[in-house]
Amino acid sequence: MKDVSLDRPLGKVYLIGAGPGDPDLLTVKALRLIQTADVVVYDRLVSPEIMALIPAGVRLIDVGKLPKCHKVPQEAINALLVDLAQQGLMVARVKGGDPLIFGRGSEEAADLRAAGVAVDYVPGITAAQGCAASTGVPLTHRGLATGVRYVTGHRARDAALDLDWASLASEDTTLVVYMGAANIAEIAFQLMRHGLPASLPVMAVSAATTPREARLISSLGSIATDVARADPEAPVLFVIGHVVSLYGAVTLANAALCDGAGMAAYA
To answer: Is 179 a catalytic residue?
Structure first.
């Protein structure tokens, strides 16, 4: 029997960054695509507020991963995207943050292109950028941090972290750790072992930019204990560095602007 699918034109896959969670932070292009797609394949980090923008009747496929529970392995996700495109569908593959920052977007694109499927990236605001804007803690600041580095605190198949600790242990650099809650004790230990002081400030943020945002201010020597006590909802983003010392100044300034005098001054 002839496979009629061979007569169909190939569809296209858009690898879309949904940003940190606030729907107002979606790009115009991302919003247009998720509202016109034939099917939306989404991760668990895409916020419910953004999912609510998808029109009723659009086919939704959940391929989200939980710690130690990947109900749809990455290889199966890649194959699914190829199959949907080969059915002639326009596919919105939606990810939290940016698809090229710890989002495996390039892995999916490689398999799609190998199958002859057209792919476009749609960048999103990263979790780190969203966290910085929401909390008011900059990732760089003159006199406090001359650079910023993003690292993952989790390895595929729960492999041991083999980061270049000596390189990461720089007080002149802000270190942003994605997906690090389970390994924060090891991360903090290694950074201190390689020279960072236990007093170095650390901020942990979950669900940044959403109504569920939770923040924890600590230090490198105490962060593991404090996170274990607070038990924030994963994923948790960690900002490690002297820039976190600005958090108190930001919150005090905001409080001043929100009291009666401050409101009057800005009315």
So the answer is: yes
Is 43 a catalytic site residue? yes
Q: Which of 67, 90, 124 is the last residue of a domain?
A: 124
Mean predicted confidence (pLDDT) in 196-209? 97
CATH number (domain holding residue 73): 3.40.1010.10
In a domain, 32, yes or no: yes
Is residue 31 within 8 A of residue 94, CB to CB? The reply is: no
pLDDT digits (tens, 9 = 90+) for 35-89: 999 999 999 999 999 999 999 999 999 998 665 555 789 999 999 999 999 999 9
| Residue 236 belongs to some domain of the structure | yes
Q: Which of 95, 98, 179, 203 is labelled catalytic?
A: 179
Decide if 263 is inside a domain. Answer: no
Q: Which of 212, 245, 246, 216 is nearest to 228 (CA)?
A: 216
149 and 165 in a common domain: yes
**In this structure, is residue 261 part of a structural domain?**
no
Choose among 110, 120, 4, 96: nearest CA to 44. Answer: 96
Residue that the structure tokens 């940016």 belong to: 98
* Residue 263 clears pLDDT 50, i.e. is over it: no
Residue 224: domain span: 128-251
Q: Is the pTM of this model over 0.85?
A: yes
Which of 22, 43, 95, 98 is the catalytic position? 43
Q: Known catalytic residue: 29? A: no
Which pairing describes strands 90-95 and 12-17: parallel, antiparallel, or unpaired? parallel
Domain-terminating residue out of 84, 106, 124: 124
Q: What is the DSSP string of 62-103?
A: E---BTTB-SS-HHHHHHHHHHHHHTT-EEEEEESB-TTSSS
Q: Find all residues with CB under 8 Å of 95, minimum gap 6, and list them.
A: 15, 16, 17, 18, 42, 43, 45, 46, 103, 105, 124
